[in-house]
Amino acid sequence: MMIHLITSQAALADALHWIEPHHLAVIAGDAINALHKFEYCPCEVAIFSGDAALVPSKNVNVLTMDQWVQKLEQSPCRTWS
Q: What is the largest CA-CA distance in the chain?
């Protein structure tokens, strides 16, 4: 699974055109403010637990930091260290 950490409103708008259904989009930073503008995202969407109160009406998964690290470790597309 490809994981995208999207932190800006412009990046979120752009990513909706090329993200694939089997990807995971983790929305944070300024992108949180734009999440309500988009009714559809072609893939699984997650936010960090600290941001959960900012998007109460959206159908998104909430990740703890431990879950975030676990997803990164499980991803075959890792380029982080």
A: 34
β strands within the chain, DSSP E? 3-6, 24-27, 44-48, 61-63
Torsion angle (degrees, nearest 10) of CA 7, 18, 23, 53: 30
Question: What's the rounded Cα separation, in Å, for the pair 39 and 67?
Answer: 25
Q: Residues 6 or more apart from 29 whose CB is under 8 A from it?
A: 7, 8
CA-closest candidate to residue 28, choices 3, 9, 44: 9
pTM of the model: 0.86
What is the C-alpha separation between 10 and 28, in angstroms, rounded?
A: 13
What would the pLDDT profile of 13-36 be if each residue is shown by its tens digit?
A: 999 889 999 999 999 999 998 888
| H or E stretch covering 70 | helix 65-74
